[in-house]
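We were asked to recover a plausible sequence for a given structure. The inputs and outputs are reproduced exactly as logged, with field labels preserved.

PROBLEM: sequence recovery
POSITIONS: 368
GIVEN STRUCTURE:
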């Protein structure tokens, strides 16, 4: 465990960030930046898997290495939940349930926390209840919905349900499932990191010409990156591919996001199309930048159903099968990008105004 000394001030918030991938962390980074710039508070962040990203993005925030939750495991070669390995991981998480709650209750008591925020680990809400302090859930889905969708309702999912019901309120992001397990739900506007490098400036630095299209392609970190090698058979030389940092597939047409570069939303904002697995962070950053998005869904992953439906309803992109993604047949739809771009001009404030401000007002109301 890594800890820094905690100063004694009146208003402290313990912010728990999910260890499932990096998408929760990117939106929480945006929220924490806004809270720290607008409120006189101290925030202590607890997370593990996205620890380095949070550390590098929030250098002046106290950060503690702590495993909060366990997500799903995908099969290596296709976007499908591996039910056997996911169940094993889920059961391991639940085995440590009581010891985690005891540890975090002691920590939050000793450090005089005024508020707990969790995206979207359930146990911190039990900690807040034990301490008699308010708690906020922030997400577009719950693990209760994800696991009950896969395995049905059982003794284990009942524990998740009981924990989520202890949250004081939930800030429900766009592209969400109903999240009915949370008693008090408040819809908030889109949350995404701000783009701070102009599109034209970044495209110029990458050597992207006016007649060229830059397409981001991403699988996430759970699948075999060699799948992306199929994309390099695209014949149109005016299409260049942007790849996540760390992908080791080489081609004359591809550009990699630099390793260690944290503000990846700037690169997505420079694209003409974002093509990715479903996931809130990528979708929200596409919407923030008004870039059309094509997604493929992960089989058995409950969140993806609602992401896909909302993209279709807003008419800002396409839902594409994984087979179509791999075969490059989606290239035939690239002429429709202008139509999707135009639709961004008609989105309501839920997608154009800053949800961080909504969350700041909720936090202020609970700690004042």
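RECOVERED SEQUENCE:
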């Amino acid at each position: 465990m890594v800890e820094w000394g905690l100063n004694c001030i009146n208003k402290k918030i313990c912010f728990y960030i999910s260890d499932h991938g990096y998408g929760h962390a990117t939106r929480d980074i945006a929220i924490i930046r806004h809270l720290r710039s607008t409120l006189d508070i101290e925030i202590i962040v607890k997370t593990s898997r996205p620890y380095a990203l949070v550390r590098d993005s929030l250098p002046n925030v106290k950060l503690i290495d702590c495993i909060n939750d366990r997500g799903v495991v995908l099969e290596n070669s296709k976007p499908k939940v591996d039910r056997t390995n996911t169940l094993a991981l889920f059961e391991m998480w639940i085995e440590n349930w009581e010891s985690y709650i005891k540890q975090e209750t002691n920590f939050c008591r000793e450090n005089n926390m005024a508020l707990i925020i969790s995206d979207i680990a359930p146990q911190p809400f039990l900690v807040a209840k034990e301490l008699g302090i308010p708690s906020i859930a922030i997400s577009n889905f719950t693990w209760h919905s994800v696991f009950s969708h896969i395995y049905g309702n059982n003794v284990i999912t009942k524990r998740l349900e009981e924990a989520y019901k202890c949250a004081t309120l939930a800030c429900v992001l766009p592209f969400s499932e109903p999240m009915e397990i949370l008693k008090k739900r408040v819809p908030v506007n889109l949350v995404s990191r701000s783009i701070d490098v102009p599109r034209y400036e970044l495209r110029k630095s990458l050597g992207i010409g006016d007649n060229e299209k830059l397409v981001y392609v991403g699988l996430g970190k759970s699948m075999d990156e060699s799948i992306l090698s199929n994309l390099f058979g695209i014949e149109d030389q005016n299409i260049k591919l942007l790849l996540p940092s760390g992908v080791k597939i080489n081609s004359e047409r591809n550009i990699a996001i630099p390793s260690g570069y944290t503000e990846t939303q700037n690169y997505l904002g420079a694209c003409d199309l974002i093509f990715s697995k479903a996931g809130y962070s990528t979708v929200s950053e596409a919407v923030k930048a008004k870039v059309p998005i094509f997604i493929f869904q992960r089989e058995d992953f409950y969140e993806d159903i609602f992401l896909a439906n909302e993209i279709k309803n807003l008419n800002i992109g396409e839902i594409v099968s994984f087979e179509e993604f791999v075969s490059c047949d989606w290239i035939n739809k690239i002429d429709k990008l202008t139509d999707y771009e135009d639709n961004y001009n008609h989105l309501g404030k839920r997608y154009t105004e800053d949800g961080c401000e909504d969350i700041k007002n909720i936090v202020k109301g609970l700690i004042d």
